[in-house]
């Protein structure tokens, strides 16, 4: 059941499982929010941990609204992810928070030892497809993100150029606010070039 107006209206049915293998305690994932391009705004992500236990850290963005028990936006929270555990990142986990798996001591597993496998289950939304996502001036599909570094428009979703990773660091200045699909029509139109 969706509870946020921007969440997918359809039932959460994972269409993608993405696996990460951390061979040892040295392997880590730095601070980030998960890319929203195919998930759409306000996704729910299920995350299974297998093998060595590792800490998982999360921290609200500076301008995220404070909630009860969240005293300052610099607080870093850590939870232990043991073997065979399920972590569910509910909305607005990606828009208001960032997360990481730091390089830190592991709780070894009797068979896997230091190794940990993480599988995230993600629901790619019907309307967030390669043929509906806008293309930037480089001619490549855009990335969907939300505003995280400014108080103004905090949390608002936008498309931007994602060419740099495939284009030797070069990218264009394409910008377009994400617009919810009109009811009954699974399209993602955008409001191009309005100010951020
Ligand atoms: O390994 C984990 O528990 C999290 C990995 C992660 O953040 C990701 O794949 O986006
Ligand atoms: Fe992540």
From TrEMBL:
Keywords, ordered alphabetically: Metal-binding, Zinc, Zinc-finger
One biological process term in Gene Ontology: DNA alkylation repair
SUPFAM superfamilies assigned to the protein according to its UniProt record, in alphabetical order: Clavaminate synthase-like
Gene3D superfamilies documented for this protein: Alpha-ketoglutarate-dependent dioxygenase AlkB-like
GO molecular function, one term: zinc ion binding
InterPro entries per the UniProt record, alphabetical: AlkB-like, AlkB-like_sf, ALKBH3, Oxoglu/Fe-dep_dioxygenase_dom, Znf_GRF
Domain (Fe2OG dioxygenase): residue spans on this chain: 13-125
Domain GRF-type: 136-181
Ranges that cross the membrane: none
Keyword Zinc-finger recorded: yes
Keyword tRNA processing: no
PANTHER family hit by this protein: ALPHA-KETOGLUTARATE-DEPENDENT DIOXYGENASE ALKB HOMOLOG 3
The protein, known as: Uncharacterized protein
Naturally occurring in which organism (per UniProt): Thamnocephalis sphaerospora
Taxonomic lineage from the root: Eukaryota, Fungi, Fungi incertae sedis, Zoopagomycota, Zoopagomycotina
């Amino acid at each position: 059941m969706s509870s946020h107006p921007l969440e997918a209206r359809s039932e959460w049915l994972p269409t993608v499982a993405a696996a990460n293998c951390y061979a040892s305690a040295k392997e880590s994932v730095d601070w980030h929010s998960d890319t929203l391009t195919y998930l759409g705004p306000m996704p729910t992500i299920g995350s299974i941990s297998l093998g060595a236990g590792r800490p998982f850290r999360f921290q609200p963005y500076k301008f995220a609204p404070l909630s009860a028990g969240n005293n300052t936006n610099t607080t870093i929270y850590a939870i232990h992810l043991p073997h065979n555990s399920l972590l569910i990142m509910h909305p607005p986990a990606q828009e208001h928070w960032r997360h990481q798996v730091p390089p830190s001591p592991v709780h070894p597993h009797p068979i896997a030892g230091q190794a940990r496998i993480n599988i995230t289950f993600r629901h790619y939304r019907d309307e967030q497809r390669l043929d509906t996502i806008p293309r930037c001036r480089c001619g490549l599909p855009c990335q969907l993100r939300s505003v995280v570094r400014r108080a103004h428009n905090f949390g608002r979703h936008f498309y931007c150029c994602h060419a740099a990773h495939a284009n030797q660091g070069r990218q264009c200045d394409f910008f377009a606010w994400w617009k919810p699909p009109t009811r009954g029509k699974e399209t993602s139109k955008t409001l191009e070039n309005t100010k951020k």
